[in-house]
Structure formats: C-alpha cells, structure tokens
Specification:
This protein is about 55% helix and about 5% strand. It has about 700 residues and is of the alpha+beta class. The radius of gyration is 26 Å and the shape is globular. The model has no long low-confidence stretch (mean pLDDT about 95). The structure holds zinc ion. Zinc ion (ZN) binds next to helix 16. Zinc ion binds next to helix 16.
C-alpha cells in the first residue's frame, strides 16, 4: 500500500471524518490487504506474547488492533451502500471471503483463546471495573460461540457447515431474485388495470416494453406476500393472479427453494448441536435480550392473540363492505380472500378518516420536519443543538453534515443526512457509524442517516409522506444511540448491541412523529407557513392505528414460522416436499393460522431468515425491540413527556451505555421492571 493511500493514516479531518475527497476505488484493495495483514501481525504478537496474559496485553491490545482495516472497511461498506459503483461490487465479492477467513483465523486461533480463557477464569480476581469485566466476558463468549473450544476435527466440521450455509444462502437469495423477476404479471387488456393512476399504467407499459412485450403491461412483484397494487386494482381476478404469482415464488419450479430450506435448517440444527446447543434458536437467542426461544415464543403468541382479535374485526368490516357492494350491484357476494383485503380495507380507511396522502404532504417539507421536528425533539429532550457545516468534504452533493453540540456547548458528534434516492444507492433506510465512539481510541461519533426520498425537480420542495416523516425520526433514533455512546471500548460502543435491542432507541424516537405537540411544531404548509388544521392533524395521527390487526398478524405469523424452523433437531428437519406442510403445522400449533391474513413472507421467499444467518431465529427482534420502545414511551408520558429530565434519564440509563452491561439489565434499570406488552398493544390499537 502506498503511503499516500487515504487509509494509511488516521483521517486529519475533524472527528476523523473519512477524507471522502481523497478516496478512489483503486485505494480499497491495497488498504484491505494491508489492513488484514497488519491485524494478523498484531494478533500474532498478542497470542505469542512471552509475558503471561493480562487484561491489558491481551484484551485491550485486541481492542486497539485492526485500526487500518477498520478505517478502510467502514468507509468502503458505507459508500458501497450509499453511493456504490460496479467496481465496488467487484471488490466486495472479492473481499467478502477473505474477510470471513481473516475473522475465522482470529476467532479459531488456539494460542489466543488460551490467553482469553485463562483471563476469563481469573476474572473475579482481576479487580476489573465493570465495563472492563463486561468486555472480557464478551470476548470469551464470542470466541466460544465461534467454536474456539472445539476439537480440531470439530473445527473442521464447523468450517464445512459454515461454507455449506454460505453457498446455500447465496443460492436462496439468487432464486428469490430470479423468481420475483420472472413472477411479474403480464396483462394484455388495459381494462383490467382499472384503479391504477395514469402514471402507474404508464410505468406498467414501460416495464412491459423493457421486457420486449410492447403493447402489454407488466406488474412487477415486490418481496412481501402482499403486493402494493392490491389496494388499488378493482378487477378481482387480476388481484388473485398477482397474489398467486407472489406466493408461488420459489415453491417448486426452476427456482425452487424448498429443497434449499430443507438443507439449511438441517445444517443449522447440526451446527447448533456441535456447538453444544439444543437447536439453532437456543444458540442465537442466548446472545440476545430475549435470552431463550421460549421468551420470544411467548411474546409472539401473546401479541398474535391480540392481533388476531383485531384482524377478525377488520375482516368483518371488510366483509360488510363486500356484501353491501354486491347487493347494490344486484349480484352475489363472495367470501373475503387474502387478495381482497388491501382493496377493501383501503375503502374502509377512506370512509373512516376522510383524507388522502396528497392533502397532507404540503405540511411535511423535509427541511422543516428535520429542523422543527427531529432536531427540535433532540433539543427539548437532550439539549442538543445542530450547526450545519459547509467546510467538510462529502461523497455526494446532496449529503448534509451537521456538527452536534451538547447542552453545555461542548462538541459531541458529526451527523450526516443523506436523504435522497439515487440509482447507486441501496433501497430502504438505515443508519451507519462512520466512526464509533470510544474513549480508549479517543474517538467521538460520526454517524449517518440514509433514506430514499425521491428527489424533486430543481427548485421544487421535498414534500414527505407521513411514513417518510416517521422514518426520518426512526433513523435519527439510531443516530442518537451512536452519538450519545460514552464508553471506553470499541466492542461495547453505541449501536453494537443485539438485533432485538438495536431497534429500541429508533422505534422509541419514532413515537415523536405522532406526538400532537411535536406534529403541531413541524407540520406547517411549506408555502404559507400555516399550521396543519387541527382536525386533519388528529385524523392523520388516528389513522396510524388503522389495519393494525392485519399488519401485526402477518408479521407475527412470519416470526412464528421463523422460530419453528430453528427449534428443530437435525432429525426433525423435513424433506423438501414437506416444507410447506411444516409451515402450516407451525401456525396451527400456535393458533396463528387465519386464512384471510397470510404471513408477511412464506418460507420459500423469506430472505431475512434464509438468505443469510443474521436474522435466522431473529425476525421476532423488531417486535421485541418495539415492546421496549413502547414501554419507554409510556414511561416518558407518565413522567411529564418531552422534558430535559426525561431525556437525560434515558440518555444516562440506555442511550449512552452501548453494551457495557447486558441490554436486558440496562432496560430493567431504566424501567424498574421487566418489559410489559400492554403499551405496545395500546400504541397499535390492539385489544389489551
Ligand atoms: Zn431501524
């Protein structure tokens, strides 16, 4: 690596912001290679230190290692997501197996593990402060979970399982992509498209043209079971065709995933057994806030029970509409089916709340929502102030950067907002840590929020939907978790917490998007500056509880299927032909099957759990986190709402703590008791 590679030295910029103006694609490869080599050398020195192991010469030394690799990986993965190009995709495929191998070489290094194990055994005599003790325990747990204590032949077997899973999960993802593309529905008669807007019909015609089907129309599928156009299409048979196309993806045919699922669940069960666990869910949840599969199962069953009650009520409202419509048209009615739900529920929604999306958007101008909504709440709760900076190099002209100051005026962090959609940006919304806070390394946080808001024409305002407003608050909740981090060690910093805790601060922050006093503060007409009329504001907020029976049930169904797949022994893994029956049986056993509400994902296209390991036995995590978030919201409301005292309390107990204590304990110390699902049910308008 050349000495003028931008990753060779720590960034000279404030807060060590990566020097975006100096980074070129050609810098990544050499920096990755040099970074891995440097960390291997550092780890070798630690593992073979002639001095007996001490907390400093082993654990702290590991925490200090890998700085170069960290600089290049962080910048690379952040930019690849937000502003990637073909060359970066190539570098990613090239580096992914090398990075996995690098990580394995460290986690399975026997000499290193001997030192960690010996420190772990003496942990009570080492007189460590609580955070250092936690760090040692986390290192030990991570090495154990990666297989450090296995015999050489078992380690061999583990590597084989990991390789098999990595190729099966890749195949699974590729099959879903292909089947989703191939499953697009072709329409020959324009009359069937009644209900879609002129733009949507135009887009369907161009989609057909792009596939060489001139003069026809194509409705592409998206990943979930339910498809977005189902709430508009009036033609019942077309709705059914689209629904069937969606649910039959990868269930048989040339992109069949049922045989891949059968192998994945068996190997995961075998790997869990090899590592000493009853099943894959037990292995995964041990490291999370929920701790045991039973805790997650109980929570899901409880929420599902309440959600089904609401869903049945919603279905009754819809059936009444179907029957009224049929009677008015002097024809026979029909029984509500999954492909009817969105269409009729949209009719019910319009009748109930009487506003449409176009009417509210002028009140949600991006910059006003950011400054008078998101930043306003952060100021009222935590005393933060924000100063936009124009002197720092960024990777794209639309990205904004703010320096964030604490209540006493001291500098806290840098916050980047990258809000617009681009061709080279991944879909969805997320938060990145560009620099993770750590006292050991002298770092303050640099965090980024990404959204995919369509960019308006030059000079036109950026007007948001209420969902986008909520997402803006959500992602900023993650940002606060990163910026408030006040810990010694990088491993325990900020958002480096389990999946079923990481969504807690963000889902909590979401709540302010629908807090009447906050909405009144930011919802002003972008031209006149007039506040949103009170009646409309109330309807917008009330509408958030609409259709929650359906939405919650489709989610809990999917999460229950996920848990069922990962609580089996190797012998219980079904054959490919039994995969769908296994799914059915799991829902029936939990009392969760209700025909009008299908699971959000059926197994053959359930990417979260089969296209990689990270959300296997982990889909429940969103709801688990949300329970903590709603409990926190209820606590804040019962203690006076939007006040500095409440904000500072939450910051001290949760937002500044990273994983310096186990997350379940942090929550208990904040809340004063175990999580309670009642506030979540209330928030979603479900019976409680
Ligand atoms: Zn999130």
């Amino acid at each position: 690596m050349s000495p003028d590679n931008p990753f060779a030295q720590p960034s000279p910029l404030p807060y060590q912001l990566p020097p975006f103006d100096r980074i070129h694609d050609s810098d990544y490869r050499p920096a990755f290679i040099a970074g891995m080599a440097a960390q291997r050398a550092e780890v070798d020195t630690i593992a073979h230190d002639p001095q007996p192991p001490s907390f400093g010469n082993t654990i702290v030394a590991l925490e200090r290692s890998g700085r170069l690799l960290d600089r290049v990986s962080t910048a690379f993965f952040v930019l690849n997501q937000s502003n990637g190009d073909d060359e970066m995709l190539k570098i990613e495929s090239e580096m992914a197996p090398k990075l996995a191998e690098h990580q394995d070489a460290i986690s399975l290094d026997p000499a290193l593990f001997v030192r960690i194990e010996s420190l772990y055994r003496q942990r009570t005599q080492l007189t460590l402060d609580p955070e250092s003790r936690q760090l040692l325990e986390r290192y030990h747990a991570q090495f154990l979970r990666a297989g450090a204590r296995l015999s050489d032949s078992d380690k061999q077997q583990l590597r084989k399982f990991n390789q098999q899973l990595s190729s099966l999960t890749t195949q699974f993802r590729q099959n879903v992509l292909k089947a989703t593309r191939d499953g697009a529905v072709v329409i020959e008669e324009p009359a069937l498209l009644k209900g879609l807007s002129a733009e949507q019909i135009g887009a369907a015609a161009s989609a057909a043209k792009a596939r060489g089907l001139d003069g026809k129309w194509v409705i592409a599928l998206q990943n979930t079971t339910t498809q977005p156009v189902l709430d508009q299409l009036q033609d019942r048979s077309l709705r059914q065709r689209i629904y069937q196309a969606s649910i039959s993806r990868c269930n048989g045919g040339s992109n069949d995933n049922t045989h891949i699922i059968a192998q994945i669940v068996k190997i995961r069960a075998e790997r869990a057994r090899l590592l000493g666990y009853a099943n894959h869910a037990a292995y995964t949840l041990e490291d999370e806030t929920a701790a045991t599969p039973k805790a997650a199962d109980d929570m899901l069953r409880q929420v599902n029970g309440a959600a089904l009650q609401s869903a049945r009520q919603e279905a009754a409202d819809i059936q009444r509409d179907i029957d009224t419509e049929a009677a008015a048209a002097h024809r026979g009615g029909f029984k509500l089916q999954p492909w009817d739900w969105q269409y009729y529920s949209e009719q019910v929604r319009k009748a109930k709340y009487d506003f449409d999306v176009a009417q509210v958007r002028p009140y949600f101008e991006l910059n006003r929502v950011l400054q008078d909504g998101v930043f306003y709440v952060a100021h009222e709760l935590y005393g933060l102030t924000f100063k936009e900076r124009h002197d720092l190099p960024l990777y794209q002209a639309d990205v904004r950067v703010f320096e964030v100051f604490d209540a006493d005026g001291s500098p806290l962090a840098l916050f980047l907002g990258d809000y617009y959609a681009r061709d080279n940006k991944q879909g969805g919304a997320w938060m990145n840590n560009l620099v993770a806070q750590s006292k050991l390394l002298g770092f303050q946080a640099v965090v980024a929020n990404n959204l995919n808001i369509p960019k308006p024409a030059a000079g036109a305002p950026t007007l948001l939907t209420f969902d986008e407003v909520t997402t803006l608050f959500h992602e900023f909740g993650h940002a606060l978790h990163g910026m408030f981090s006040n810990v010694e060690y990088p491993l325990l910093s900020g958002t480096n917490v389990p999946p079923d805790f990481v969504e807690y601060p963000s889902q909590f922050n979401e709540m302010w998007a629908r807090e009447p006093s906050v909405v009144a503060h930011f919802a002003r007409d972008y031209q006149s500056g007039k506040p949103m009329p009170q009646a409309l504001l109330e309807q917008v907020i009330a509408a958030q509880k609409f259709d929650q029976g359906y939405l919650t049930t489709e989610y809990t169904d999917a999460a229950q299927i996920d848990m069922a797949w990962h609580e089996i022994t190797p012998a219980q893994a079904p054959a490919a032909g039994e995969v769908m029956a296994f799914e059915d049986a799991a829902l029936k056993r939990d009392g969760a099957d209700y025909a009008p509400v299908p699971p959000r994902y059926h197994s053959p296209y359930f990417l979260h759990i089969f296209a990689g390991d990270s959300y296997a036995a982990g889909y429940y995590a969103y709801l688990w986190s949300e329970i903590l978030a709603r409990d926190t919201g209820a606590w804040i409301h019962s203690h006076g709402g939007l006040t500095r005292a409440n904000g500072d309390y939450l910051r001290t107990k949760i937002l500044s703590r990273g994983r310096t204590m186990e997350p379940g304990v942090l929550f208990q110390q904040f809340y004063g008791g175990p999580p309670d699902i009642k506030p979540l049910l209330e928030y979603r308008g479900l019976p409680n």
